Fold this sequence. Notes:
The protein has helices at residues 62-74, 96-104, 109-120, 148-165, 202-209, 215-226, 244-258; strands at residues 32-36, 50-56, 78-84, 126-130, 170-173, 193-201, 233-241, 267-273. It is an alpha/beta fold. It has a single domain, classed as Glycosidases (TIM Barrel). Helix 2 crosses helix 4 (148-165).
Amino acid sequence: MGYESHIRATGKPSIAPKLPFVKASAGYKPLEFGVYDPHDRYQHSKGPRIEHVFVYWQAIDRLMLAAKMRLAVRRKRTLMVTVEPYTKAANWLDGGDRLFADITRGKFDGEIAAVCCAISSFPGNYWIRWGHEMEEPTGRYPWARRDASGYIKAYRYFIDACRKIAPRAHFVWSPKGEAALHDYYPGNAYVDMVGVAVWGLEKWDRDRYATTRDFAETFMEKYRRIERFGKPVIVAELGVAGHANYRQQWMSQISEFSTGRNPFPLLTGIIYFNDKEPHHWPDGYGSPDWSRTILEFGRKEDVE
């Protein structure tokens, strides 16, 4: 689960200017909103249209996945599954230097079959997001390595195998959003959507930029790097933490985008990370609690 924990700040960059909004076209389709909701706080809400879950492919929590699939069916939501390809070692991070080669040699074929078969049984629309945040090695993920060609081969191997098992799947290629992401692009034939994570932490903003930034200013840095692919874009993980007015500013702006005043033509969906950050940010920022944000997907009558 991604977070902006390894940004290399160089001084205090200038604040991006306020963005001009584009008018909605006659055929405009509103943004779809979703949620990663491990505590089922939105299980009764009609608002989210996407249900996001994470699975470790070498240790699938089948009970959790089955429950989330039933929930998505009941609430008529698209299912997005982030598949995290850890190693089989006792410490899942060990053996990362062999991971890509092991995948392409067939040593993870059982894991690929198990996870794709489980997802393929979902009767609605489903998206698969494999090996996210691969372009910046931090020690957090064994698949995030300075081996772009190895990653691409492993990614394509997974997609080719999964398509045979889950032919209705749409695949989300999901870099962190750093400058090196282009080296890891697997090719148009292997990408249906591009997804990045966007985090708004008020204290981080003030310390790094001497002021706060809004969603558009924060997202624009990543959007400019991925728009060149011409693929639909989603914010695969969104989190906001800080004072109430800071959180409200972010969510109000995103709400405006959903009605058509959207400066990001390729942006089609946003999925909120409704939980506490499971890892620590650097420099003493701790683990932000993104779930503190009161996320409203719709009106009161949208909740049964």
